[in-house]
Amino acid sequence: MSPVMVIAGAEIRAARRNRWVLATTLLLAALALTLAFLGSAPTGTVGVGALEVTVVSLASLTIFLVPLIALLLSYDAIVGEAERGTLLLLLAYPVERWQIVLGKFLGHSAVLAFATCLGYGAAGLALSWLGAAPDRESWNAFAALIGSSVLLGAVFLALGYLVSATVRDRGMAAGLAIGIWLLLVLLYDMALLGVLVADQGKTISAAVFSGLLLLNPADVYRLLNLTGFAKVSMFSGMAGVSAQAQFARPLLLAALAAWVLVPLALAAILFRRRQL
Q: Would you give the DSSP letter of residue 161?
């Protein structure tokens, strides 16, 4: 077995011992089921099904919750082991540093993917049992939500690894991780909205606005889920944004993939140059 898979398996076992898998799965499942059952109340008046309402609700929840879980999983993956002294022991084995980064990333990604698929899948099964959303488009939107949620988690795992490979103090890594979460999840859109209001359409064109949205993985995720399907777009109120920022689904997926690969590659390069 390759060193990457051995390290990934060790991270999965560690997450199981620390109850990360159980806690994350139960949290996502409880919130998803709550939104599925309580959030379908307006379906009778707006002409959309319960599954479309659930997709909109879960997309909003995911933007806040999944990045935070991912950063909590990854922010001390390297600096924490360096402080505990276990990193030197790991490097004593015939393993490359990039293999350590990739193995840990794959392990944490598997944990997050399992929790997301099982937690959100429980809500889909519950709605299916109740006879919600018989059309294929609704289920495609729900499947896209689960897949893109896993991808969004991978983005913030990679950002957490970049932080962990950069700093030499676990407390600083935690502070930077929270700062990244605040910036990308909360502050970026507020700042962008303020700039748009102040500009009043004089400088920022539709093309520039579209490019600015791609600079934030949370916005890419929002566009992917809330504008890619007609019924979901109608209920979410994103139809106008969908018409203005016309991104093909492959482009949005490629943007999220780039947000995974670039920080992870930078983390591997910085870790290779790190003096222990």
A: H
Instruction: Supply the Cα-derived Rg of the chain in whole angstroms.
Output: 20
**Which pLDDT belongs to residue 239?**
47
Nearest to 20 by CA among 85, 70, 94, 83: 70
pLDDT tens digits, one per residue of 98-120: 999 999 999 999 999 999 999 89
Contact between 230 and 137 (Cβ < 8 Å): yes
Give the residue numbers spanning the domain of 61: 3-273
Sequence-distant (≥ 6) Cβ neighbours of residue 228 within 8 angstroms: 141, 144, 249, 252
Residues 161 and 264 sit within 8 Å (Cβ to Cβ): yes
Region 231-249: mean pLDDT is 58
Q: What is the dihedral of CA 88, 90, 94, 100, to 10 degrees?
A: -110
- Residues above pLDDT 90, as percent of the chain: 44
Find out whether 33 and 132 touch, Cβ atoms under 8 Å: no
- For 42-60, how does the pLDDT look when each residue is reduced to its tens digit (9 = 90+)? 554 445 567 777 888 888 8
Q: What is the total count of domains within the chain?
A: 1
Contact in structure between 107 and 8 (CB atoms under 8 Å): yes
Q: How far lies 114's CA from each of 130, 140, 143, 172, 188, in Å? A: 24, 19, 14, 29, 29
Burial class (CB in 10 A: 0-12, 13-18, 19+), 226: buried
What six digits make up the tokens of 130? 């109740």
Cβ-based neighbours of 219, under 8 Å, separated by 6 or more: 188, 189, 213
What is the reported pTM? Answer: 0.89
d(CA 182, CA 185): 5
User: What is the C-alpha to C-alpha distance for residues 191 and 186, in angstroms, rounded to an integer?
Assistant: 9
